[in-house]
Amino acid sequence: xxxxFDDDGPGPVVVLLHGFPLDRSMxxxxxxxxxxxxxxIAPDLRGHGHSAAPDGVYTVDAMADDVIExxxxxxxxxxxxxxxxxxxxxxxxxxxxxFPERLKALMLLNTRASGDAPEAxxxxxxxxxxxxxxxxxxxxxxxxxxxxxxxxxxxKHPELIARWHGRMARTPARAIAGTxxxxxxxxxxxxxxxxxxxxxxxxxxxxxxxxxxxxSIAMAGAIPxxxxxxxxxxxxxxxxxxxxxxxxxxxGFLQALW
Length: 258
Ligand code: MLT
Known about the structure:
Blueprint: E1 5-8, E2 13-17, H1 28-33, E3 39-43, H2 60-73, E4 80-85, H3 87-98, E5 103-109, H4 118-134, H5 138-148, H6 151-156, H7 158-169, H8 173-184, E6 200-205, H9 213-222, E7 227-231, H10 238-241, H11 243-255
Parallel strand pairs: 2-3, 2-4, 4-5, 5-6, 6-7
Antiparallel strand pairs: 1-3
The chain binds D-malate (MLT).
């Protein structure tokens, strides 16, 4: 399906895939900084931001297919850098697994390779049902917001929290439910990590309450030659909470590629 997207900047292509339940505006800082040297393509994934929200389960592979369709539509069939945060990282791994010829390099930000444990999948189904009953994103925001940001971000940048609460609240209930069910059924991609042959950056927020630092270090350790970077003063949403620290890691990685 067609996605809304931003496409700006000169040079080699860097695709940035947002997390759940966010939208492409989470990359607004990177569009300025990374986008001064690279062509940054940032879509709103299915159901999010300004993209359409069909009924049904949004599997990670279907959402990744949308991204490939977008690149095909732009005639970008040569390998590109694909980076994703959390859910965006699941999509990036889906592309690495199923379309390795499309990848020049991989950036896995605040994400994991494993699938949901059965109890996590059950909790997602419970949340999906609450969201459908409420007809709004609020139940999922209530469940996720306290863990999305570092504790100090709540104290230092309440305006950021309020802004993102508002953006998440605009995501339609059927998109939230469809995504939750898709995330719950995503495959465990841990076994593919040793077979990744493109340069890879694994980035972690020092205070990420959703992806423990040790898990991200282990993921980087399983990918041959992967670079691991930790962004201070950031939780799960490093590009928003500490844009400069995130940019430094991304730009350092990209500069070594060309
Ligand atoms: C995200 O930020 O995309 C979510 O934390 C992903 C998830 O819920 O697994």
